[in-house]
Each structure stands twice: as structure tokens, then as C-alpha cells.
Amino acid sequence: MERTFIILKPDAVQRGLVGEIISRFERRGLKLVAMKMLQVSEELARQHYAVHEGRPFFESLIRYITSAPVVAMVVEGTDAIAVVRNTVGATRPAEAAPGTIRADFGLEIGRNLVHASDGPETAASEIALWFGDDLIEWQRAND
Ligand code: CMP
After folding, report:
1. Would you write out the chain's pLDDT as a tens digit for each of its 143 residues?
2. CA gyration radius for the chain?
3. Among the atoms of ligand 1, which is closest to the Cα of residue 116?
4. How many domains does the chain have?
5. Element (H or E) spanning 19, and its range?
6. Could you give the ipTM of this predicted complex?
7. Are 7 and 49 in contact (CB under 8 A)?
8. Catalytic annotation on 48?
9. CATH of the domain at 36
10. Quick one: CA torsion of 112, 61, 118, 111, rounded to 10 degrees?
11. Ligand 1 atom closest to Cα of 7?
12. What are phi and psi of 101, to 5 degrees?
């Protein structure tokens, strides 16, 4: 059982796609274990995207993610990190496979609707940064 971190970015919220996107994750069988809507502070944005510091798009990325509310969540399930990444699709919408969220709803790399952790270490650090220990522990019958 694995957990991963997801942000529905300002474009997803503004375009009224929150329900549609969460529904895609739920329909794959992923279980929500944390969720909140928030206006991201500059400090949180810089910490979250620290790995991109110095890249040409970094400052516009920070401006964008702090510009309007986002919905952050943690989901849980078998191979959750890979399942979420392939439900979301490639970072560049033009390279995202048809049927993925970014292909179905996106066009611009800077407005690609969703952020999803790219590996176990980033998932753990992003969950800790955004939620601390504030996660639901679901009862599991047989595992
Ligand atoms: P995300 O998965 O949130 O991680 C970093 C983000 O930077 C990425 O999605 C894109 O939305 C954004 N970004 C903007 N411009 C670029 C770019 N030229 N290359 C990669 N990522 C970019």
C-alpha cells in the first residue's frame, strides 16, 4: 500500500474540474486520506518547488501556484505513485497520452492542472510538508 501527494492547481479549480479530476482517481480505486483547499503561501511554494530553483520557469511557477486557491490531497492504494502519474499524464500536455487528465483538459505546460509526486522520496517529503501527520488511517479488513 502506497501513498502519494497531488495538487489540483489554480487552473483546475478555476475551470471547475475539481470533481472530475478527483473522480478519476477515485474510480481507479485510490482512497483519499487527506484533502484541503488553500491559498498557497510563497514560502510553501518555494519549499515545494525547491528542486526547480534556478530554472527559467521557476519564478513564474511560484507566481502561478500562489495566484489562486488550490486543492491538495493525499491518496492511497497499490502502486499509488505510478497509478496517479499515469492517470495525470506527461508534464507537457502535447506529450500526454489521450485519456489522461493533462491530455483531456490541458494545452500549456505551465497550466497542466495537476501536480503529482514523482517517486517515493518526493511523495514522503511532500506529504510531510503539506499535511504533517494529519492523515486518515482507514481500517483494512484483510491485509
Ligand atoms: P509540476 O508537476 O507541478 O512540476 C513542476 C512544474 O513546472 C510542472 O508541473 C509545470 O507545470 C511547470 N513548468 C512550467 N514551465 C515548465 C517547463 N518549461 N518545463 C517543465 N516544467 C515547467
Report:
1. 899 999 999 999 999 999 999 999 999 999 999 999 999 999 999 999 999 999 999 999 999 999 999 999 999 999 999 999 999 999 999 999 999 999 999 999 999 999 999 999 999 999 999 999 888 888 776 55
2. 15
3. 2
4. 1
5. helix 18-27
6. 0.92
7. no
8. no
9. 3.30.70.141
10. 0
11. 3
12. -60, -45
* Dist CA 143 CA 18 (whole Å): 31
**3-class state of residue 75 by DSSP:** strand
Among residues 71, 105, 115, 123, which one is catalytic?
115
Are 31 and 81 within 8 A, CB to CB?
no
Query: Would you say residue 18 lies in a domain?
Result: yes
In a domain, 38, yes or no: yes
Indicate whether this model's pTM tops 0.90: yes
Residue 140 lies in a domain: no
SS (H, E, C) 78-90: CCHHHHHHHHHCC
- Which domain range does residue 22 map to? 2-131
- Cell numbers placing 3: 501513498
Would 110 be classed as within a structural domain? Answer: yes
